[in-house]
Amino acid sequence: MMIRKLPRNTEGRDWVVGDLHGCFSQLGRLLSIIAFNPACDRLLSVGDLIDRGPESHLAVQWLAQPWFHAVRGNHEQMALDAMRNPPDNQERHLCNGGAWLAEQGQAERDACLAAISQLPLALEIAVVGGRIGVVHADCPDNDWRSLSARLDADNPSEQDYSTLLWSRSRVKNGGGGQVQGVNLLLVGHTPQEHAIMYDNVMHLDTGAVYGGKLTLFCINDFVEVSLPANVEYMAQFLVH
């Protein structure tokens, strides 16, 4: 499944989190601050759950939660490429914070790769009056409907992969035009000091793993909540 379409959440709130990079302590604390309710709320991720940070190994546990939905980021893609097409891709992943995966036991490594291999390239969430999209970096050609059709058909192009996982052009250019077919698109990938909107694209990577902060954005009421790095891990939201 390359795109996952979620129905409207009529019971609770939907929150979207920026790039985690193994900073699950900050995420747990943020969920405590917002009084996240796993019985009715949902947590969506723009990808890059792993690498660079201290708790990348916990990604598997979080992905097992029924209320947590993530897209694939470029770091998940690098991890998959490293295992499928060594050795050049292994070196690339190691140089980008992937040493933790090589240090895992075989069973743990297999579980992680199995989990991230199931991540879609896009999420689509039904909301009152339309839809909201989530991808890691950007939407190809600013056309959500065309992208959705290609992903539904399991037929993304190489350019789709490049834009979805790697593009920074919207941030570099200070915009790039409205993405048609969605009310709002939420992305990460390029660290910013604060969450910032270009066109109808909200950028949520605020550099938690670099000592910045981790940001949550509520798509129900457009509330933004951030927390500086290095706070105590809160594990009560994980189902053991």
TrEMBL record:
Signal peptide: none annotated. SUPFAM superfamilies: Metallo-dependent phosphatases. One of its GO terms (molecular function) is phosphatase activity. GO terms for cellular component: cytoplasm. It comes from the Bacteria. Residues 71-76 form the Serine/threonine specific protein phosphatases domain. Pfam families: Metallophos (PF00149). InterPro entries: Ap4A_hydrolase, Calcineurin-like_PHP, Metallo-depent_PP-like, Ser/Thr-sp_prot-phosphatase. This is Serine/threonine specific protein phosphatases domain-containing protein. It comes from Chromobacterium sphagni. The lineage of its organism: Bacteria, Pseudomonadati, Pseudomonadota, Betaproteobacteria, Neisseriales.
